[in-house]
Write a structure and sequence with these properties.
Layout lengths: L16 H13 L2 H9 L3 H12 L7 H14 L2 H11 L7 H20 L7 H9 L4 H14 L1 H11 L10 H10 L2 H8 L4 H8 L4 H12 L3 H4 L2 H17 L7
Helix pairs in contact: 1-4, 2-6, 3-5, 3-6, 7-9, 8-9, 8-15, 11-13, 11-15
Length: 253
């Protein structure tokens, strides 16, 4: 059976196992935003060549991981840059080995240089959550409500980090009983479906035998479609708890 030139993939000779492993480790340990910053100043033709080389390494021992890293980097680039690089990828079929080596080494050096001069302060939403954690919850809610009008996805992310569904396991008995008094049975059942055992137990410890039986029955009757929105129900419970805490009806701290 004949094999066309398009089916033949040749790993550049300079990309030995050590070189592949070194870049894989570098990308494993470097935040994607830092790598993305390194690519901003790279010529699109060089970036295209680099992506093509990495994409051809999928059969190497470190190649699959490296190809996955570079694929994610490409997806994070500005759309216009993606288009430009994509066009150049389609015409990058043959390259001088010396040029390939040069581009590879330059890009690796660029990533390392960017890493050395960059201080990563952590995820922005996590930083804001830590800042707000020192505020009264009523003030937190007021700020998040205002932020939500401009950046709803950011406000939701920060709110989730301030108090999560898993944090319900730390609530006192009186707080749990307060929630049970106002939370409707379908929402609670959906929220407790496949919930962490510690959260599940905190609620059932504060129910009567008849309440627990009713909730267990409700959970058992959930359809597959209903279980797909369990996260929404859990977020409803979290929102309820935060609102009650803001009004002084229960303590979460």
């Amino acid at each position: 059976m004949s094999v066309s030139n398009a089916d033949v993939q040749t790993t550049p000779p300079f990309l030995d196992e050590a070189a592949l492993q070194a870049l894989t480790v570098l990308l494993d340990e470097t935040h994607p935003q830092v790598v993305l910053a390194a690519f901003q100043g790279i010529d699109d033709s060089d970036a295209a060549l680099f992506f093509v080389m990495c994409g051809q390494l999928k059969d190497e021992s470190a190649g699959s991981t490296l190809a996955s890293h570079t694929g994610k980097i490409f997806a994070m680039l500005p759309f216009n840059k993606q288009i430009s690089i994509a066009e150049k990828v389609t015409t990058t079929e043959i390259v001088d080995a010396e040029r390939a080596t040069q581009v590879w080494d330059e890009l690796v050096a660029k990533i390392k240089a960017t890493l050395q001069k960059t201080t990563f302060l952590g995820a922005g939403t996590a930083n804001l959550a830590r800042l707000l954690s020192h505020m009264d919850i009523a003030d937190q809610n007021q700020l998040l409500e205002a932020l939500g009008e401009r950046r709803p996805e950011v406000a939701d992310s920060v709110s989730e980090k301030l108090f999560t569904f898993e944090d319900l396991r730390n609530l006192g008995d009186e707080a749990i009983k307060t929630i049970l008094q106002v939370l409707d049975k379908p929402t609670l059942a959906l929220a407790l479906h496949n919930a962490p055992s510690a959260v599940h137990d905190r609620f059932f410890e504060n129910m009567s035998a008849s309440q627990a039986e009713a909730i267990e029955s409700e959970i058992a009757q959930l359809t597959f479609e209903q279980t797909q929105i369990a996260d929404t129900a859990r977020q409803s419970v979290v929102s309820l708890v935060r609102n009650f805490a803001a009004k002084g009806l229960l303590q979460i701290g």
